[in-house]
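ugh finaly. both done.
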Amino acid sequence: MSTHLLLVDDDRTFASLAATVLRHEGFRVTLAHSLHDARAALARQAPEVVVLDRRLPDGDGIDFLPELRAQFPDTAVMMVTAHGDIASAVDAIKQGARDYLSKPVELDDLVLRARRAAQDLQLHERLRQAESELGGRRRLLRPRAPAMVAALQMIERIATAPRSPVLITGETGAGKEVLARHLHNVQGGQGPFVHVNCAALPSALVESELFGHERGAFTDARAARRGLVEVADGGILFLDEIGELPLSLQAKLLTFLDQGAFRRLGGTTELTSNARVVTATNRDLTREVAENRFREDLYFRLSVFRVEIPPLRERREDVLPLAESLLVELCAELGRRPVDFSSAAKARLERYRFPGNVRELRNVLERALVLEPGPALELQALEPRGNLGPAAVDPDAFVVSGGPRTLDEVERLYVKHVLGRLEGRRMEAAKALGLSYPTFLRKLEES
């Protein structure tokens, strides 16, 4: 079946020519020349790919992106504009665009990128089919470890109170986002799921990203723009690494949690959103509160419901089933025929403690699938880079004369140990530990 592509551009000559070329290449093309026309076309049929002009008679394509991505999260969007610049490109990508092209567009390049987008969609469809063949099993739906069973039971109870905030705690890479998405599914999947990594937001743009801004609110605010709180209306706003949120924004978030109301940056009108706020952190927020880096009232408001997700090393019985599920997903993503683990690889999986948790497990499997073409994955392909397993750490380092070190002390020691094994290469150490680079730097400073 051919790929349905929606082309939104007010330059009718370019749109007609591009549509002709794309149809010749096998795409089913629908044309729209304004945002009004685009919304009407989207109401009739969801496209797999959207080619979207930035400046349209009735609005800015970049401002339309959050609405488009919220309604059609699986649709690939490519921005096309005659007014391209680096700032606009960054903004478009942040809002969910797959590609950003400047006019005059080489039609061969447009066709190539559209074809790649269609191929990626086909890979995702293969992934869905593979999951269906597994009986619809997802990573967290049938855990064996008692701690994970308890966490999922808590999520199912929490789903009956759709407005209350939820705080998910656990180590980096343990699966906090997966648990938040599971809550979204248990609630019926109504409304968008908007994921915000607070650590990745530039400090100068945090308020605008979350709450939006009015035209003229700051130098480059040429048009009003909705924030992610508005985009998430009726769904879930997932604030990952909430401990990184600046103190200056914590009061505004608290107001939104209490009243469901907020104002855009530079605005005077009070707006509302019925988004459920789910937050996640690997930090000890009680310590952050004690050290005046996090508001105590916000902490209590966020933790109305608190769910702890255990690290992978504490749910050993889930490792092999989880690895098998991830292996199916990765084979579909990489376009590879299904493979299995050798007996040696299974033994290695069962022994290894995975300090980077599920994220590290996935990285190990992806590396093995790329490097090893055989029908079964062997132990060598599953060996993590740098041989950073716990056996390489001196057990005596965990004990001092007064007794065992605290978990925080052990974590700091291990971060320094991994960095030393990788000869000071910080980016590689962060990846090996399954940490984001900002989180790794913070842990390094604490050590």
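ok and the 2nd:
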Amino acid sequence: MRLGLALGYWGRGPDPQHLELAREAERLGYHSVWTAESWGSDAFTPLTWLAAHTSRIRLGTAVAQMAARTPTATAMQALTLDHLSGGRMMLGLGLSGPQVVEGWYGRPFPKSPLTATREYVEVIRQVLGRAAPVRLDGRYHAHPYTGPDATGLGKPLKSIVHPLRADLPVLLGAEGPKNIAQTVRIADGWLPLYWSPSRTELYRAALADARDGFMVAPMAQARVCADVAEGLKPVKAMLGFYIGGMGHAARNFHADLMGRFGYEAEARRVQELFLAGRRAEAIDAVPDAFADEISLVGPRERIAERLELWRRGPITDLLVLAPDPETLRVLAELTG
């Protein structure tokens, strides 16, 4: 099980520790470093900055939002960074949800998310393969565009730049069972948002047909600390925000996922409190047990014991959200 460092996205501004953490992760032998985006900082610019200040560590987006760019624009950014970094780029993509797609990007959320995702990946594969001009008779990502307001002058084009790698890895963030099953068919890896090493049966059927080399790379908050309850507070804060605020009361993929973990009533309660403006109560309502099973928090000995559970499943890469160099070092020692 390889280690990756997940840096997420910015809050009020750039985190001055991110570059230090990425360099330390590279020094410790971490395989990869990952950036993300929501509705503020983008994923590619910080990753390019990290690429310029490192030399070996792989570079991934976990995740770049599909609604933020056309598939060809995403392919352009990926192939450009792959060249600049010497072939270190891994492209992680996510569809996001209606709240973000329609509220932030001002675009309709696809009625068929599976089809939209499949077409998006297909266009990127064509760009990176560069075997011919991009053509797709798609419902969401037609190339050339042939909609009712088209000029009819669109021309199939092939990238001017020769991609460094036609097989640049494409990974997908997927939560629902059908989405995960499609990810296994069309992508090079899966980026689970939450992973419980004690509930691997939830993923067994979807991953049954995964080919050799398929990446399973979940994120987990990690922190070496004496007080487990104190260490879980950031995990609960993250869960409260995602479950309560990252979606509509009637359609929240994160809340649905928590429900599949056996916490359906608790997830709805978190939603109710968060949407009522009672954010502190919403965070408190996140069960400690749920926060604990998807993270690695506590003294070194406790983390070592729990890490063995993560090793037993199908995980190939553990992407840790770690706030300090000590935690990075301890995890490197425990997995080395």
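summary for the 2nd one i guess: The first helix runs from residue 18 to 27.
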